[in-house]
């Protein structure tokens, strides 16, 4: 009995230690966006070891042919970019559906080889996400920090690109649906980094998920919910979700690497070193979590053996 209680306690500690790895396994997420030159913004990519971020065309709901790639170091990255191949982008018009997926680096430092560097999986599916991209004259995208507290009543946006004068607007978000606006920040056309959007949290649950959207101004210079339209791609808003954990912190290391050009039409991409600048870090996402998973596995095995009387 004592052994069982001890194992249960160890199991709880192991799961707590493994939390980072479980929550941040190999995955990539990308949102609807507009691209002018084939540069695609991937909201988040997390790799437990060095690998590749790969763009693939959609093939009946599954990742299809490779249309772009770049190397990524281990860790969590926000707002990383990858360039679509020139030939593919030249033949793209209107809306196109792409996949941003992660691949292994089988040779540990060699050039990207689709035959050897296989696609990673995440809970039985591709370690990535399908999303729509529109080809337009001016790019449109937004990337938040993904999770954390509202600092001094404002939500931090890592980067946003507006096609013309407009605003970043924070909305309530529930079950994939945008709700009422909670605050806005007027911005000029172009790319902006480290923007803070004021948020009115009156009547808002402290754990409520929100989303930041891109709106274009109707010409009066101020945000009006009914008049300043949301930028959409294939009917979906250009938006970035923001979750607020109970403790208000997101304790995963964030890397913002220098973008590496995928080299035009070539599908062979060299692993050139990237410059990673951690932002708001508290722990390396691939460190203690992996050890926690290993500990959890050992404890579970011991617990099962105890139950079977082995």
From TrEMBL:
Residues 241-252 have a biased composition (Basic and acidic residues). It holds the Pfam family DUF7282. Residues 29-115, 152-240 form the DUF7282 domain. Residues 235-285 are annotated as: Disordered. This is DUF7282 domain-containing protein. It comes from Halorientalis regularis.
């Amino acid at each position: 009995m004592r052994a069982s209680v001890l194992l249960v306690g160890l199991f709880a500690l192991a799961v707590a230690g493994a939390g980072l790895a479980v929550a941040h396994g190999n995955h990539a997420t990308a949102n609807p966006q507009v691209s002018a030159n084939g540069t695609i913004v991937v909201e988040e990519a997390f790799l437990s070891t060095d690998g590749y971020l790969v763009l693939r065309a959609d093939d009946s709901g599954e990742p299809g042919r490779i249309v772009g790639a770049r190397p990524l170091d281990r860790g969590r990255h926000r707002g990383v970019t990858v360039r679509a191949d020139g030939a593919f982008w030249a033949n793209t018009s209107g809306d196109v559906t792409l996949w941003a997926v992660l691949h292994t680096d089988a040779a540990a430092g060699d050039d990207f080889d689709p035959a050897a560097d296989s696609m990673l999986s995440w809970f039985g599916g591709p370690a990535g996400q399908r999303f729509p991209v529109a080809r337009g004259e001016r790019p449109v995208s937004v990337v938040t920090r993904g999770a954390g507290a509202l600092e001094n009543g404002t939500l931090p946006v890592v980067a946003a690109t507006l096609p013309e004068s407009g605003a970043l607007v924070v909305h309530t978000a529930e079950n994939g649906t945008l709700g009422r606006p909670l605050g806005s920040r007027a911005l000029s056309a172009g790319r902006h980094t480290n923007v803070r959007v004021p948020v009115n949290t009156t009547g808002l649950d402290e754990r409520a998920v929100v989303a930041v959207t891109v709106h274009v101004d109707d010409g009066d210079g101020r945000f009006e919910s009914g008049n300043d339209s949301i930028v959409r791609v294939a009917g979906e808003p250009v938006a970035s979700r923001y979750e607020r954990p109970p403790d208000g912190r997101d304790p995963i290391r964030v890397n913002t690497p220098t973008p590496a050009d995928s080299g035009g039409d070539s599908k062979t991409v060299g692993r050139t070193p990237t410059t990673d600048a951690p932002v708001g870090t508290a722990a390396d996402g691939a460190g203690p979590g992996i050890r926690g998973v290993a500990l959890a596995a050992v404890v579970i095995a011991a617990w099962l053996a105890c139950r079977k009387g082995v």
